[in-house]
Amino acid sequence: MSQLKNRLNRLKKTQASIDNKVISSHLKGGEWGEVGAVTKTNAYGSFVKREIRIPLQEKIGFYPLYQLVGSAQALSHLQSIKSNVLHDKMLFFDTETTGLGIGAGNVPFMLGIGYYTDDAFIVEQLFIRNPSEELAMLAYINEKFQHFTHLVSYNGKTFDLPLLKNRFIIHRLTYEGEHLEHIDLLYPARSLWRNSLTTCKLSHVERKRLGIHRVDDVPGSMAPTLYFKYLIEKDPNIVADVFRHNKVDIVTLAILSIYFVSLFEKRDVYSNLELDELYRLCVWFNNMELTDLFQYVYELLTTRVIEEDPNYFIPLAMIFKKKKDVETSVSLWKKFIELQGHQRIINTEPYIELAKYYEHRKKDFKQAIYYTKEAELRVYNRISLSKRNQKYTEILQEIQKRKNRLEKKIKSRVNEVDQNSVVELRQVEMNV
DNA sequence: GGAATGGATGAGAATGGCGG
DNA sequence: CCGCCATTCTCATCCATTCC
Fold this sequence. Notes:
Layout: H1 2-19, E1 37-42, E2 45-55, E3 59-60, E4 63-64, E5 90-97, E6 108-116, E7 120-127, H2 134-145, E8 150-153, H3 160-170, E9 181-184, H4 186-193, H5 202-209, H6 223-233, H7 240-265, H8 275-287, H9 291-308, H10 313-322, H11 326-340, H12 349-361, H13 365-385, H14 390-431
The structure holds a DNA duplex (20 and 20 nucleotides).
């Protein structure tokens, strides 16, 4: 055990020295050992491989790596994943390429993969020193695919994987990863943070939500330039930063997975969320049909919405309307009006929705016309406040149309009642 | 510069109530 | 039964975003 610990510590040290850029310039370029990499050879040729072991208890940002152990299954809700998700059957995946297109001119010069073993998280980085090494690298990763069931990436569905498949075709290799289900974390990230983060780029997400702060990171957009420079000068130190960048990307994929999983099982994390995140989470659980989680988050959300921003009652009401639970929608619209009705500028949607509800479902035209008139009043306020009122005059016309219709309906109902009472009277007379 | 994705927006069909 | 109108449901289409 202590032997293992020693070994881990030793590995940790070498890795730290690489990360701290102790790759010093007095060791003249050319030696791959300097970046902690070795030459790997297989039946198709050679390429360079760097392997890093990270102990599972290591904390990356806010979360330790071991948190995914035994709890990866929840990730299946993020995309329509059918098979069981096990942490040690997931292959985290990110490439560095010579450009952004997925056409033939774009070459992946580095493939970064990450996976869990019993005692560590392993990052393997495959790098080609020239185009002729690509085939050997592809063959290597092809064999790796066999040991996993799920691929995890960030925008990999549109970028990394199509590109990689193209390379297989160009090299006349059969892609052996068709069995892999693909979890692309970009989409859940966007649906959760589209409003609360200015951008959902991986580097921004990890800094703002995972507590991971990169130091001296080279942006991905620098990768092509650095690689071309390497091709000319053949000094591994030139691409040392690309290795480091790619490694963080891979590790971030694991930590982001942990974060998502925690949303499904650690209900105490909800109190740290921004209001909009909590709302988006509510939408998640509703769409995923996880009723318990939905109910829990919904209740938490409503108490916060009252204090922080009653406007959220409106989309929430629409969720229940879609679920055909209109009574709940009605209570939310009314709650909104109760809290916001006094404001000069206010969304009229709840008034209109309530008017529809009373006209069409309850046939209570008086209530319907009451809410219509309330809406009309608010729009008047708007128009008097703004010069550019084209939009609001249209809304106003719509409202007045509704009002006129309701007035007619009320009138005709009064007539109906009169006629009915006349009929009743006649019947009484006949009976007499 | 290519493409999967989800959200927003819109068009068209289906529904349903109402009056003639 | 038919025409009219408002609403709702279902697709279709568009648009921005993200990867290096």
